Automatic annotation (TrEMBL):
Residues 49-195 form the Glutamine amidotransferase domain. This is Glutamine amidotransferase. Coiled coil: none annotated. PROSITE patterns: GATASE_TYPE_1. InterPro entries: ChyE-like, Class_I_gatase-like, GATASE. The keyword Oxidoreductase does not apply.
Amino acid sequence: MKPFLLLATRDDDEAADDEYRGFLEAGGLDPDELDRVRLEAAPMPAIDLDDYSGVIVGGSPFNASDAPAAKTAVQSRVERELGTLIDEIIERDFPFFGACYGIGLLTSHLGGVVDDSYPETAGPTRVALTADGETDQLFGRLDRDFDAFVGHKEACAVLPDGAVLLARGDRCPVQAFRIGHNVYATQFHPELSLASMLTRIRIYRDNGYFAPDAYGDVVELIRGSDVTEPAALVRAFVRRFGGE
């Protein structure tokens, strides 16, 4: 099959490598089946979508809802470059999966609202499929209710026009949606294992995803969680669009 493409934006090498490994393992992919471009490191190279089975955008220290004046030159460049590619993806209904920052970027670019109304502290959260989610070709393979790992300061507050809500949560009403037939986005991180979630909160301990003095409690909550279902979503994406 053609490889998938991960467009990453994490400037911490350990976090970036752990994210890449997470998508490899969740998707059942070999390294030669998942190309990675770190957009925070250099301008986006020319990308021919016909070279890939699908595009993945993971999480980020960036927030799509930041005021333009507050965004660094790197973030502004990354969002311009991703915006141009998203336009082509939407036009072609090309397979796309955006997680966390990916859902914020997709929402804001398509005219929805991303703001700080529904943040979630880093850790597990309960996700429930909607009726549309239960019949979706990817989400329909999941349990109707499951736990997933999150950690975000912003979220989709108003869906873009044409978006189909696939999953919701008690603390965050929009946990996943679809545009067209092949463009997906989740607020939760389907690539995160328990070990990777612990790595993530250690690296971003002081980045505002939880109170620093609550670190021990957050670790305990994560260690006591049972998060396994979301990885099946990445595997379903790979199987559907990778031609398995």
